[in-house]
Design goal:
Blueprint lengths: L1 E2 L10 E3 L5 E16 L2 E8 L8 E4 L3 E8 L7 E4 L25 E7 L5 E7 L9 E7 L14 E10 L4 H11 L8 E4 L15 E5 L4 E8 L5 E6 L4 E6 L2 E8 L2 E3 L4 E7 L6 E9 L13 E7 L8 E2 L9 H10 L17 E13 L10 E7 L2 E3 L8 H7 L20 E3 L2 E4 L3 E9 L11 E5 L4 E7 L17 E3 L1 E4 L4 E8 L3 E7 L10 E6 L21
Parallel strand pairs: 1-3, 3-6, 5-10, 11-14, 13-21, 20-22, 23-28, 25-26, 27-35
Antiparallel strand pairs: 2-3, 3-4, 6-8, 7-9, 9-10, 11-12, 14-19, 15-18, 15-20, 16-17, 16-19, 20-21, 23-24, 28-33, 29-32, 29-34, 30-31, 30-33, 34-35
C-alpha cells in the first residue's frame, strides 16, 4: 500500500539521435495503483504507479517517443496538451478525434517532434475522467540551454501540478453524472503534486514539501491539471513574477497570486528572500458561476521550507482571495501580455474566416438510458450544435484521411444560427492550409436556472493570439480594442462568465483539431467542435497513420 508521498518520479533517459537533437523515450504502463489518501484505501489508475505521472523533459527540437501500454480495464488515449503536432496529428491523443482509444491490454507508441516550443506543457488521459489521476508535466527546455531564457537563469525549477481527488472510482463518478443528467459530483479534495496537504479532516494526510535555499530564484512551473475547477494559488510571504503562460513567454508580470484555469500553465519566478522558515503554498477554487452551485471548498496545501529550518517549525498560511473574487481573477487573466522573440512572425493581419461561436449549458429531456434522471438533463453546445463523438469504427482523422463518408458533416456554422434548442451533430469547420481564422468566443446564458461561468476553451494543434476579452456581449466596435502588438499567446483561454474573448490563429497544420471546454464535465455534454484543416503544398501534408494506430471497437 502506497501513499501519494511515496510515489516517486521516473528517471528520464535521453538517447542522442543527432548532434542537434535527441530522441527522448519513455514507457508508460497505465494500470491500477493502490494508494492511501484522505484516510481511505483506494485503487486508482496511473502511469507507472505514480501520482502525478512521470515528468517528461525534452529540449526544443527533440523527438519524443512514448510507448503507452494499457493495463487498465478502460479504453484510453494520451494527449500531449499544447504540443503542435506538426504533421503528426495521429499522435495528438484526442479520443475519437485523432485516434481510436487504446483498448485494455493494448498498446500504442506515440512518436512526434517538438519544434518551435519552449516552456511548460503537460500530458493527460483524454478519456472520461481518467485524467484526474493520469497526468504529468511536459517541460521543454531551450535548444541553447538556460541562456535561451528571456529572464535570468533560475537556481531551481519546481513543477507544481494542481489537481482534484475523488474518493470514488472516477469512471463511476462520470457514469453516475450521465445517468442523473446532472454531471459528476464535486471532488473530495484538491491536491498539490498529488497530495491534499493538512487542511482536511484526515490527520496525517500526505503533503508536498520542497526545500529551498535562501537568496535564490526558483522557477515554479504551475499546471492546473484539475478536472473541473479554476484555482487561486499563493505562497505565504512570497510574490511571483510571471514569465510565461501555456509555454509562451510573457512580459514580466508581478503578482502575489496565480489564477489558473484547467488546462493552463503558468511559469513564475519566486525569490527566496523571506525570513528563513516554513511557508505554506495553498490553492483553492475560484468559483465564477453566476448562480449558486456546490463546489469543492477544500484547500490544498504544501510547504516551502528553507534549508536549515527544522521540520517542526510553525508555517505561515497565505491569505487566499475569496472564492468568488472575479476582480482578482480578471486582473490576472487580462494583465498578461506576450513577449515576442525575434523569430516570432507576429499577429497575422489578414483574416480569411471570421467566426462568432456562442456556447453554454441548457436543459433537455432525459434520454431513455439516463435511468437516474429526473425531468431534465444538462446539455451543452457551440453555435447550437451539441457535439457528438463519432459512433462509427473510425476516428474523425481517419475518416478525413481515407475519405470515409457519413462520419461527420462540414457544416459547423460561422455564426450562431437563428434557432431554438440544439442540434446533436458531429460538425466540423473546414479551412484551407494557412488560412487565418478569427473566432469571437461568446459565453451565453441559455438558461437562467443554470446561469453562466468561466469556460476554459482549449484548441488542439495550435497556439492562438488572444486579441481581446471582456464582459457582456461582444460587438464589432470592440475590434478597435484588439491588441495586435503584444497579445498573450495561449492554447487555453478562460472565457469570462457571460463575456467574450477573441482569438486568432493560422491553420498551418493539416488534420482534425478539437476545440472544446476543458471543464471535463462539459465535454460529454457537447461543448466542443472541430477544425478540419486541409493539406497544403508538399511537404505540408497529413502523413499516413502509424502502422500500430489503434482500431476502434464499436
Amino acid at each position: 500500500m502506497a501513499s501519494a508521498a511515496m510515489l516517486v518520479p521516473l528517471v528520464l533517459v535521453l538517447c542522442t539521435a543527432a548532434a542537434s537533437a535527441a530522441v527522448v523515450e519513455h514507457t508508460f504502463k497505465v494500470g491500477g495503483t493502490k494508494i492511501t489518501q484522505l484516510c481511505m484505501n483506494s485503487v486508482i489508475y496511473t502511469a507507472n504507479q505514480q501520482l502525478p505521472g512521470p515528468t517528461i523533459e525534452v529540449t526544443e527540437g527533440d523527438t519524443l517517443v512514448v510507448h503507452a501500454v494499457n493495463d487498465s480495464p478502460y479504453p484510453l488515449s494520451l494527449h500531449w496538451h499544447g504540443v503542435y503536432q506538426l504533421r503528426s496529428g495521429w499522435n495528438d491523443g484526442a479520443n475519437k478525434i485523432t485516434q481510436c482509444p487504446i483498448q485494455p491490454s493494448g498498446n500504442f507508441t506515440y512518436r512526434f517532434n517538438i519544434t518551435g516550443q519552449e516552456g511548460t506543457l503537460w500530458w493527460h488521459a483524454h478519456s472520461s475522467l481518467l485524467r484526474a489521476t493520469i497526468y504529468g508535466a511536459l517541460i521543454i527546455k531551450p535548444r541553447n540551454g538556460p541562456s535561451g531564457y528571456p529572464f535570468p537563469e533560475p537556481y531551481e525549477e519546481i513543477p507544481i501540478l494542481l489537481g482534484e481527488w475523488w474518493n470514488r472510482n472516477v469512471d463511476d463518478v462520470e457514469n453516475d453524472g450521465y445517468l442523473t443528467g446532472l454531471g459528476p459530483q464535486i471532488s473530495n479534495a484538491l491536491t498539490i503534486n498529488g497530495m491534499p496537504g493538512d487542511q482536511n479532516r484526515c490527520k496525517g494526510s500526505a503533503m508536498y514539501e520542497v526545500e529551498v535555499e535562501y537568496g535564490k530564484t526558483c522557477l515554479l512551473r504551475i499546471i492546473n491539471a484539475a478536472v473541473n475547477v479554476e484555482l487561486f494559488f499563493k505562497v505565504a510571504g512570497h510574490t511571483f513574477t510571471v514569465v510565461a503562460a501555456d509555454a509562451s513567454y510573457t512580459k514580466p508580470y508581478a503578482t502575489d497570486v496565480i489564477v489558473i484555469a484547467p488546462g493552463q500553465t503558468v511559469d513564475a519566478l519566486m525569490n527566496t528572500t523571506a525570513s528563513p522558515g516554513r511557508y505554506y503554498m495553498a490553492a483553492h477554487v475560484f468559483d465564477s458561476k453566476t448562480v449558486a452551485v456546490p463546489f469543492d471548498h477544500s484547500t490544498a496545501t504544501g510547504i516551502v521550507k528553507y534549508k536549515g529550518v527544522p521540520n517542526y517549525a510553525p508555517a505561515a498560511m497565505p491569505s487566499l482571495p475569496p472564492h468568488d473574487d472575479v476582480v482578482t481573477a480578471g486582473r490576472f487573466y487580462w494583465s498578461l501580455t506576450g513577449l515576442a522573440r525575434p523569430s516570432d512572425p507576429g499577429v497575422p493581419t489578414t483574416v480569411d474566416h471570421n467566426m462568432v461561436v456562442t456556447f453554454g449549458l441548457d436543459q433537455a429531456p432525459c434520454a431513455p438510458n439516463q435511468t437516474k434522471c429526473s425531468g431534465f438533463a444538462l446539455v451543452a453546445a457551440m453555435n447550437r450544435n451539441s457535439f457528438q463523438f463519432p459512433d462509427q469504427k473510425v476516428s474523425l482523422l481517419e475518416a478525413l484521411y481515407k475519405g470515409v463518408p457519413g462520419v461527420y458533416s462540414e457544416d459547423f456554422p460561422d455564426f450562431p444560427p437563428p434557432m431554438q434548442g440544439f442540434r446533436k451533430a458531429t460538425a466540423v469547420k473546414k479551412v484551407k492550409y494557412n488560412d487565418v481564422v478569427e473566432v469571437v468566443l461568446q459565453s451565453e446564458q441559455y438558461s437562467s436556472t443554470l446561469g453562466t461561468e468561466n469556460h476554459p476553451i482549449h484548441l488542439h494543434g495550435f497556439d492562438f493570439y488572444l486579441l481581446a476579452q471582456g464582459l457582456g456581449r461582444f460587438n464589432p466596435s470592440m475590434k478597435s480594442k484588439y491588441n495586435l502588438v503584444d497579445p498573450q499567446v495561449r492554447n487555453t483561454v478562460a472565457v469570462p462568465a457571460g463575456g467574450w474573448a477573441v482569438i486568432r490563429f493560422m491553420a498551418n497544420n493539416p488534420g482534425m483539431w478539437f476545440m472544446h471546454c476543458h471543464l471535463d464535465a462539459h465535454l460529454p455534454l457537447g461543448l466542443a467542435m472541430v477544425f478540419e484543416v486541409l493539406n497544403g503544398p508538399a511537404p505540408n501534408l497529413l502523413p499516413p497513420p502509424p502502422v500500430d494506430h489503434p482500431k476502434c471497437h464499436g
